[in-house]
């Protein structure tokens, strides 16, 4: 197609999708479709004549093109036309849209420029101004418009093109940076929420494990009471063995073994308490780690974090002290039980004693 130019002053920014429209403010206009080229009516007072002016340039060629601008688009199509030049305003676009509707059909209305389209070219049009051609997709129609403008006498303005491309690149980079910052902020906010939730869970786990540890430690007291009762039973049986009856001596030895079994039970309690203490310590370490993560992000941790850690540490210290005292207590019972049984295994009953007492459980630390 050819885009003829007349002597009217103005400029057009052409944004095209499936339909390409090239015109100046007062240019002759052609509408290019995929199926061919349809020339607009020459009767429109706004579109002007459809023939090229005389070969000699006119004085208006060097006048400033500093008028207004307006943008219209065809409803339902990816087509935009921005008029820029003397007298280009809303009423101009309204009249222009009516002329377009008569010649091309469709409904044309005022729109905001779609700056996401890509630049095809910038042309200095003799006697008219500047035409900036924008297109989307493959640039097929946009480049065709540029070629026809150039064939009609327009000169490509590479300086203006560079400025537009640079502006688009800067805008794209700024948008990408803003999107990246927004994504980073959202990710950090999500991480902060996750860290805070983790700290709350750690506090709950810590409280639960401390409660379980305290329950297991306090439960050992019943086993200590049982060992004490078994020692007293042995002492009662020992009073019956004074007659030299070896059967009674053997009974006392069995009583000593029972007290030793009580010590084994306390040893099992110790193993349970040791596992509880390990869990509590792990919970404390996890909560401290979550607390550090929140502080690193300048996020206040749950208000009870510090007191929960201190309370748990004191509970561990108390549990260790209680368990070690219980171990010493039952070990003392075993020592007494074995000493008593061995003291009765004399004379004809020699060798019937239980022998050396077993080693007591080791202390917790």
UniProtKB/TrEMBL annotation:
Top-level taxon of origin: Bacteria
Residues passing through the membrane, by range: 12-33
Biased composition (Low complexity): 249-259
Keywords on record: Membrane, Transmembrane, Transmembrane helix
Region (Disordered): 42-63, 235-270
Keyword Transmembrane: yes
Start-end of Acidic residues biased regions: 260-270
Name of the protein in question: Uncharacterized protein
Organism whose genome encodes this protein: Actinospica durhamensis
């Amino acid at each position: 197609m050819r885009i003829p130019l007349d002597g009217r002053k103005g400029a057009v920014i052409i944004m095209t999708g499936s339909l390409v429209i090239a015109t100046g403010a007062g240019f002759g206009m052609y509408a290019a479709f995929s199926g061919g080229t349809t020339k607009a009516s020459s009767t429109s007072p706004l579109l002007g004549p459809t023939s090229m002016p005389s070969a000699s340039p006119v004085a208006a060629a060097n006048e400033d093109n500093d008028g207004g601008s307006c943008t219209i688009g065809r409803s339902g199509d990816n087509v935009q036309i921005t008029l820029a030049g003397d007298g280009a305003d809303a009423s101009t676009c309204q009249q222009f849209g009516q002329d377009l509707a008569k010649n091309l059909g469709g409904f044309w209305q005022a729109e905001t420029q779609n700056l996401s389209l890509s630049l095809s070219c910038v042309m200095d049009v003799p006697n008219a101004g500047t035409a900036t051609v924008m297109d989307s997709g493959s640039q097929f129609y946009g480049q065709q418009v540029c070629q026809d403008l150039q064939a009609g006498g327009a000169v490509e303005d590479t300086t203006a093109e560079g400025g537009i491309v640079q502006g688009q690149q800067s805008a794209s980079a700024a948008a990408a940076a803003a999107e990246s910052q927004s994504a980073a902020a959202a990710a950090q906010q999500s991480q902060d929420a996750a860290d805070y939730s983790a700290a709350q869970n750690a506090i709950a786990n810590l409280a639960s494990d401390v409660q379980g540890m305290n329950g297991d430690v306090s439960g050992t007291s019943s086993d200590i009471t049982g060992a004490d009762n078994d020692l007293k039973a042995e002492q009662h049986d020992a009073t019956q063995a004074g007659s030299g009856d070896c059967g009674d001596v053997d009974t006392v030895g069995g009583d000593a073994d029972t007290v030793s079994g009580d010590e084994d039970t306390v040893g099992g309690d110790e193993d349970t308490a040791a596992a509880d203490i390990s869990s509590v310590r792990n919970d404390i370490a996890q909560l401290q780690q979550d607390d550090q993560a929140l502080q690193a992000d300048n996020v206040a941790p749950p208000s009870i974090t510090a007191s929960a850690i201190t309370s748990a540490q004191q509970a561990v210290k108390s549990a260790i002290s209680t368990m070690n005292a219980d171990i010493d207590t039952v070990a003392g019972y075993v020592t007494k039980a074995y000493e008593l049984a061995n003291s009765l295994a004399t004379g004809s009953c020699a060798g019937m004693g239980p022998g050396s007492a077993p080693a007591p459980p080791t202390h917790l630390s």
